[in-house]
């Protein structure tokens, strides 16, 4: 099925345009049915192509070799979980998260789990997951933390930087950056935010440099919506600016200088 689908895709991509007289007549179904293919990403060295495919009640991730469009691996998660966001973290390694599809057209929701795998399907590793695992996997298990991918570290084929958020109170959540080894799943805390409800940005050297934080209470506990910008030099955070907001929060993901 997969070989046939990609063969048809290759023919479509390489086919010349049809004359106007041979135009196809479309039905309503053609506009409302789910597309067979989703996101497509080429590897940094151009050797591989990764594409998500609709497989009914779950989406899978197929990897092809660009030289001959041969399918090297179809990644399919257990328990009807679908492949969500994915990215190349090196010339031959992928990282992706898991989502659950809720009905035909509802927005899928992320399970919080992250995985990494080579283009050929080897060295598949669960990086972040919830629940009970055996002794060798417990270091990758998280409790109430939620992780997002912050930077793939272009010059590092092994590690990535992820931002972790975790509840600290009824009104606030802590934030920290962790370096994650995509082969072993080992996590190393790099820095913690200066206070609750922050996002942290890296500078051009991939060092944690800025934090944008929001708060809804002042020192007296009264409602006071405001935003604060911190800069990190060495191991210390310094408040650079604080201002009242209109209720909108600013999240900084990356800094270029």
Provide an overview of this structure.
This protein has 257 residues and is mainly beta. The protein has a domain at 1-16 and 26-123: Uncharacterised protein PF15525, DUF4652 (Lipocalin), CATH 2.40.128.660. It contains two helices and 16 strands. It has helices spanning 2-14, 28-32; strands at residues 37-42, 48-54, 59-65, 70-75, 82-90, 93-100, 109-118, 125-128, 146-151, 159-167, 173-181, 187-192, 198-202, 208-217, 223-233, 236-244. It has a four-stranded antiparallel β-sheet with strand order 1-2-3-4, with no helix packed on it. A four-stranded antiparallel β-sheet has the order 5-6-7-8, with no helix packed on it. A hairpin with a 4-residue loop joins strand 3 (59-65) and strand 4 (70-75). It is globular. It starts with a helix and ends in a 13-residue tail after the last strand.
SSE layout and pairing:
Blueprint: H1 2-14, H2 28-32, E1 37-42, E2 48-54, E3 59-65, E4 70-75, E5 82-90, E6 93-100, E7 109-118, E8 125-128, E9 146-151, E10 159-167, E11 173-181, E12 187-192, E13 198-202, E14 208-217, E15 223-233, E16 236-244
Antiparallel strand pairs: 1-2, 2-3, 3-4, 5-6, 6-7, 7-8, 9-10, 10-11, 11-12, 13-14, 14-15, 15-16
Class computed from helices, strands and strand pairing: mainly beta
Proportion of strand residues: over 45%
Return the CATH class of the domain at 1-16 and 26-123.
Mainly Beta
Average of pLDDT: 83
Low-confidence segments: 11-15
CATH topology title of the domain at 1-16 and 26-123? Lipocalin
| Count of distinct strands | 16
CATH homologous superfamily title of the domain at 1-16 and 26-123: Uncharacterised protein PF15525, DUF4652
Overall form: globular
For the largest beta-sheet, the strand count, sense and barrel status come to: 4 strands, antiparallel
**Distance, first to last CA:** 48 Å
The CATH architecture designation of the domain at 1-16 and 26-123 is: Beta Barrel
Backbone CA Rg: 22 Å
Strand order of the largest sheet: 1-2-3-4
Query: Helices and strands, in N-to-C order?
Result: HHEEEEEEEEEEEEEEEE
Q: What portion of residues is helical?
A: under 10%
What's the tally of helices? Answer: 2
